[in-house]
Amino acid sequence: MRYLPLTDTDRSEMLAKVGASSIDDLFVDVPEEARLSGPIHGLPLHASEMAVEKHMRRLSKKNLAAADAPFFLGAGAYRHHVPASVDHIIQRGEFLTAYTPYQPEIAQGTLQMLFEFQTQVARLYGCAVANASMYDGSTACWEAVAMASRIARGKRSKVVLSGALHPHYAEVVKTMAKFTKDEIADAKPVMQGSPDNEGLIARIDDNTSCVVVQYPDILGRIPDLAEIAEAAHDKGALLIAVNTEPVALGAIKSPGELGADIVVGEGQSIGVGLQFGGPYLGLFAVRDPKHVRQMPGRLCGETVDAEGKRGFVLTLSTREQHIRREKATSNICTNSGLCALAFSVHMTLLGEKGLRQLAAENHRLACLAADRLASVPGVSVLNDGFFNEFTVMLDRNAREVVRELADRRVLAGVSLGRLYPQADDLAGGLLVAVTETTTEEDIETLGTMLREVLS
């Protein structure tokens, strides 16, 4: 009775109190077709806690963990080494149990951490101001679109999405846009060595509020943000740059430096780990301080107390975001504080020099992998350029190849058929990611096994 502490008598008394004859009466507002007609097929009705633990342990042994095989998956979630000191610090009680820092006099540690985090993100993105983080990269992307619409004051409604924006990010934007007046102009990725900047620029018009471009893009290519920014600004639109791999910014120019007005992305790569897909960390920054009051989320600032000592406060945390939802810039109610702390600790340990060295090693290994795979018959590398992720085209369905390689204990990458299940012309595409956790032996194993499967 650990999870069902009420007796039948307790339930009967509660139902009588609310005037219901049975549990089913509580769900009369749920359409009949949406209700289960019986127990879930295949799910046992009851088992002891020990039996469930044994069953789940048996199931877990069927998994192939990222650390137990050559691992080349990416597409927005990357396996990097997280130092043990990161986990040690985030598990300290004063951080682990801390929540929203409403009372600055007793939350100086949390506020200072968020202030330092914002500084790191702003420098990484080449922007003036960053907020105290968001849910994840995809929701941060939508928040940037919504912010651009607020800045346009309803005079522009078109949102141009690059065809090479991560399809999951694009789906989040399109889902949220159902509740706004934004018109989403989407596209499929153009399968060529370099990004289709010309095609993207041609879709920008006088009704465009913002242009959303991933950097590097979903195929691993690196678009010319400066060219796109100039074209967007000529039409009075904002450029939103999306970065899913922050380690790349240790090797390539920051989006803000290239003219992006709003820069968002996923911070998972630094300090957070794969974690079965979440929780992750949304990064958000703006290049021009004049836009700061349209930013979603919280913003921590530095001040002095009554004695003139350095202190930290929530500088922007408008009351509308807490008690008047219809007036809020955003209804996101958390800033993934523990993940932000992990990011900040790891970034502090790396420093600028360490980040650049880490990026260089990622790129070096990715180049080795691209060369090795290009030597396999039936494989061609699509990209003209990349950071640590690139696309290869196979002469077979990539989803089938990935499955066969997984059966051989090689996690080869993410098939484009999985990301774009309705696009038959992308079925042969395979997205391969390489990080510092990949060894040269892993690369050789992938090349050998891929040759065997394709032959």
Ordered list of secondary-structure elements with their pairings:
Layout lengths: L7 H11 L30 H12 L23 H7 L2 H4 L11 H18 L3 E2 L6 H16 L5 E4 L5 H11 L5 E3 L11 H6 L5 E7 L10 H10 L3 E6 L18 E5 L15 E5 L12 E6 L5 E7 L3 H4 L13 H38 L4 E3 L7 E6 L3 H10 L6 E2 H4 L9 E5 L6 H15 L1
Parallel strand pairs: 2-3, 2-4, 4-5, 5-6
Antiparallel strand pairs: 1-7, 6-7, 8-9, 10-11, 11-13, 12-13
Explain what this protein looks like in three dimensions.
Helix content is about 35%, strand content about 15%. The termini are far apart. The protein is an alpha/beta fold and about 450 residues long. Helix 5 (about 110-125) packs parallel to helix 11 and helix 11 (about 335-375) crosses helix 14. It folds into 2 domains: about 65-80 and about 350-455, Aspartate Aminotransferase, domain 1; about 85-345, Type I PLP-dependent aspartate aminotransferase-like (Major domain) (Aspartate Aminotransferase, domain 2, 3-Layer(aba) Sandwich), CATH 3.40.640.10.
